[in-house]
Specification:
alpha+beta; Peroxisomal Thiolase, Chain A, domain 1; nine-stranded mixed sheet; globular
Length: about 375
């Protein structure tokens, strides 16, 4: 069954960080010795990110960079060599405050793009892996956008960067059993809340890559200019520790092994080729790509594995350069860019998350 993509909406927080500013924050919050500091330019300069948006206030950024304390933020460094930053509970309190309005902004734009109001929505699917709170984003979306109190809610939680594809799978299943329903899917992530303090190269790489954002899509059974034809999933072998996302005392903790690009380069093509064949499509027939840019090497590994030109990842690189890795909303940002320029179909969206798992969506 096809799932029609009627409209997409995106939203970004107000605070914009240049990559130079992000590097400056890492010098203060992460490096503890001159030797460690010498490694930071390599970690930050080769990401391909130019700017990113975060929910943390600009006053806090200025305080950290200038050594002042005007903002009074709980994220200000204490000067203790063992400073690990705010507790997870403190970070979650900010998530509860900042995630809902960002989600509402993206969802409102999606509804407006579809030419409908909240009263036309029957099902709500929310996606997030960077925060837990209940009642949470779903309730705020219902109340702020005027969705019926009878709106059925499904949350896709803690799935990582491919979470929006998981959300689309849920929406497709819901549409198949309730013909005529309209579904609002909203993904929101505040990765900046889990900024790691102190020296841990894998976690500092995550600091260098991740950002905040929200994206929403209105979908339903039927046909539109863009239609979801199929979704698939593959657990890559011998990869359980290659990418992890765990809850620590001072935020959620991510590890990214150097093996991730190699695992993708080795295992993606055989599975994806077979999966596309099962959908009646050849790898060579795919006309455009929405590849989640987990990092520059991951994007390169996908292109290498599938024999794609660098141009195939141009839209992914453009979103990554402007917004960084926003986790689950990122693929929807890329799809929005592709739709706006009327990119050719079929289009394949790819995302990767803890496990290591590859998720795919095929659009026509």
């Amino acid at each position: 069954m096809n799932l029609a993509l009627e409209s997409l909406g995106t939203a970004l927080p107000a605070t914009i960080l240049t990559q130079d500013e992000a590097y400056g924050l890492a010098r203060v919050l992460c490096s503890r010795t001159p030797e460690q500091e010498t490694w930071l330019p390599t970690m930050y300069n080769h990401t391909g990110i130019q700017t990113r948006h975060v929910v943390l206030p600009g006053a806090l950024v200025r305080d950290v960079l200038q050594g002042t304390r005007h903002s009074g933020s709980i994220f200000l460094p204490t000067g203790d060599p063992d400073d690990a930053g705010p507790s997870t509970a403190q970070r979650m309190a900010i998530y509860a405050q900042e995630a809902p309005p960002l989600a509402v902004q993206a969802a409102r734009r999606a509804l407006e793009g579809a030419g409908i109001t909240g009263t036309d929505i029957h099902q709500l699917v929310t996606v997030s892996c960077t925060g837990f709170v209940a009642p949470g984003v779903d309730r705020v979306l219902i109340e702020s956008l005027g969705l019926p109190a009878t709106t059925q809610r499904t949350h896709v939680g803690y799935m990582g960067c491919h979470g929006a594809i998981n959300g689309l799978r849920v929406a497709r299943a819901l549409a198949s059993v309730e013909p005529g329903c309209r579904i609002l899917l909203c993904a929101v992530e505040l990765c900046s809340l889990h900024y790691h303090y102190g020296w841990d190269p894998q976690k500092i790489i995550a600091n260098a890559l991740f950002a905040d954002g929200a994206a929403a899509v209105v979908v339903g059974a039927g046909s539109a200019d863009w239609n979801l034809r199929a979704v698939g999933s593959c657990l890559l072998p011998a990869s359980a520790d290659a990418m992890t996302w765990t809850i620590g005392a001072n935020g959620f903790e991510m590890t990214l092994s150097r093996r991730v690009p190699t695992l993708i380069a080795q295992h993606l093509r055989p599975w994806l080729t077979q999966w596309l064949r099962e959908q009646g499509t050849a790898l060579e027939a795919v006309a455009s790509w929405a590849i989640h840019p987990g990092g520059p090497r991951i994007l390169e590994a996908v292109e290498e594995s599938l024999g794609l030109s660098r141009e195939a990842g141009a839209d992914s690189r453009a979103i990554f350069a402007a917004c960084g890795n926003m986790s689950s909303p990122t693929v929807l940002f890329i799809l929005d860019r592709l739709r706006r320029r009327n990119a050719p179909r079929p289009c394949v969206a790819l995302g990767f998350g803890p496990g290591l798992v590859a998720e795919v969506a095929l659009f026509s």
